[in-house]
Amino acid sequence: MVTSIPPKATETNSPPACSPVDAHVGRQIRVWRILAGKSRTELAAAVGISRQQIQKYETGRNRVSASTLYVIAGALNVTVGQLFDGLPPTKDLGSLFASEEVSDPPSEMRFLLGHLMRLSPRLRGRVAALIHALARDEERSDGAGSGFFTLRNRACR
């Protein structure tokens, strides 16, 4: 009987490292999940995957496929585009990929999320809609398109 030896991880068969864009999308999934008042377990059930997989997406450890991203956006009642909000225009992505810097989310974001979690799910949804409208208005008025959430380059494991 011949048994096969599993191949060693090499550059050709190792999983690709996630990019700053993947990490950003994962963070956006987390933010929108929290704003929707859903647990990882609830989102996972709505999408048809495990809670652990949602956690891996949110932390940037795993990439989200286009079809799964579409289902996640639907479960969170947001557009797929909203999960990319805050990224620089595609022509500026070169500097994003060249950056090795890792930073924490701004203290303002932690402050806001902490207080948002104290609100009822209905009120959190209204606050999220208000913030989204303000961010869109800001983008239209100055053309900068900086978005509401800042991008944080996070190393993938």
TrEMBL record:
Annotated PROSITE patterns: HTH_CROC1
Disordered: region residues: 1-20
Gene Ontology cellular-component terms listed: cytosol
Residue span, HTH cro/C1-type domain: 29-83
One MF term in the entry's GO annotations: DNA-binding transcription factor activity
Keyword Coiled coil appears in the UniProt entry: no
Domain of life: Bacteria
InterPro entries, per database record: Cro/C1-type_HTH, Lambda_DNA-bd_dom_sf, TransReg_Diox_bact_type
Keywords: DNA-binding, Plasmid
Protein's name in the database: Helix-turn-helix transcriptional regulator
Protein source organism: Agrobacterium tumefaciens
